[in-house]
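User: Please predict the structure of the protein below. I'd like the answer in structure-token form so I can feed it into my own downstream comparison script.

Assistant: Understood. Taking the following sequence of 650 residues as input:
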Amino acid sequence: PIVPHVRGPSRGVFISARALGDASGGGGDEDDDDDAAAALSAEEMASLDAEAAAAAGDWASELSSAAWTEMDETDERGNRPATRTKDGARMKRGQVDKSLKSAVANDYEDVDSSGDMDDDFSANYYDYDADDVEEDYVPGSAFLVDDDDDDDGDADADGASKKGRRRKTRREWGKIPDDKLPRVAIVGRPNVGKSALFNRLTGTKRAIVYDQPGVTRDRMYIRAFWGDTEFMMVDTGGLESLPGSPEDAPSVDSVGGFEILPGMVESQAALAVNEAVALIMVCDGQKGLTNADEEIYGWIRKYHSKKPLLLAVNKCESTTKGEEQVLDFWSLGGPTPLAVSAISGTGTGELLDGLVAALPPPSPEDLDPSWKDDEGDGPLKVAIIGRPNVGKSSLLNQLAGDARSIVSDYSGTTRDTIDSDVIGADGKKYTLIDTAGIRRRTSVAASKDAPESLAVGRALQAMRRADVVVLVIDAEEGPSQQDFVLSERAAVQEGCALVLCVNKWDRIDKDTYSMNEYTKTLRSKLRVFEWASVVYTSALTGQRVQKVLQAAAEASVHHRKRLSTATLNSVIQEATLWKSPPSKAGRKGRVYYVTQASTRPPTFVFFVNDPKLFPDTYKRYMERSLRDNIGFPGSPIRILWRGKGAKGKK
């Protein structure tokens, strides 16, 4: 992996791995002659390569969300150097803090003195926490340890391995694809607690819950289980006016020539009921049986009489009146009403027992262990984000080939994150995630629509779950500052691959050079993300929409690319020969070794003598060298600079 005879600082300050070991030991002096050639055998080079790669991987894996949280303590005391060790003992004069917090603070000391990122989103602004994120998400970590490895004593002794370890999710070890799972639809009139019960039964917080009718609009699918039975739970919007027949469900209601939203919501609910194999009708136990409940029950019995129906009387958390609230619902003369509470979980066990007993058993043809990819992640997750009214839902419907999401000219139509499994033209499976439009933080705070902040929070969570983020930009309005903020959050903070989708291209007066000129303008305004792929589409006509999936698949390949250490060091060696690191206070920067620590995004660790000797311009030069010689189109890369530690600093 290392050229056996490489000269030292006089020839690009790139020395051998043995010099790294000598320098790390502290036995040499800064002024020693490093021009002597170092000869290593093949066995020694392989051993050093393995040790350095393992050390870099362990160190980089510590840069997870838990490690970054520890940095808050450093920020609170003004980024002053540590005066005590981890066990509480006072550090001696000149002793260097070699903890992770000190290393990270050293590597990222070029952050603004205010400690605040220049974007429109604060980490704790929106009303959601880490528990809202899917269990299978580990920020910045590609080291997923299986539960079966708990018996390994060495792994338990390693703190970094414990941070990388997590419990496998049901999706990872499930053997039935999502499209073959039996679907269970939750229906009912508005504001009876359908979304709250949906979150309780699925064990997630994906559905937005707010004390306001009409919050849920689109269908939401979540993989759930009870015991050994897996099924797909579907949340729907409230039914206000019932369609006469499932086949004749209106897609659009119009009054005076204007489209209104309730008809679209009920159309989505009718489609969910039509494709479900079992139904859960939710009623409000505190308000009792209403005429709307009787109409919904009669509609289900008339058009879906062959489907199993369970009657859940919600809001029965009272220990004294809970059972009495169910008595009115016996008059329906159908299934046994069950007193449940989405808040406390009362009665949900009996509800799931009855549901599992009514579901058909899985057939041997449905078992497909190969439905996940080689890394066990299932289909490629693609999140579609952007500002309101840029055509995100229309793009999703075009790619899915179905009216999967409600589309209207009304700003803020989409609220929940909508997952849709599609198959591209290349036969590859994708999971498209439609999100709500994200406005500036000040606009969201001043909005009278209270659930908007929750919808924005779900959209930000979708970035964390996604592998690739498709940023939709309105071609008529062009890129804005908010688009730059969203790109920065997706690529820099979340580490996702990025595709820029310029939608509504059919409305632009074009000539032969329009696309090239627009691309130059786009890259100049989003100059930091000039590596991102650009696709021009029209969701209304379907023009070039399949290229979005192609660009996402290509970006995902580079997002998961892993390079050998020999290739990396060859590129860096050539880069240092062309441009040597600058000197500072009589000291010259030295690059000892480079290795790739992780993927998604590709993370590289530079072992140097002192990270402070490398300014931002030289760090950007190294990143450009990697991109020019290796590529990584559509994928961000992270470069970590690790020093051997200073000697005798006051």
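That's the full token string. Residues 42-61 form the longest helix (20 residues).
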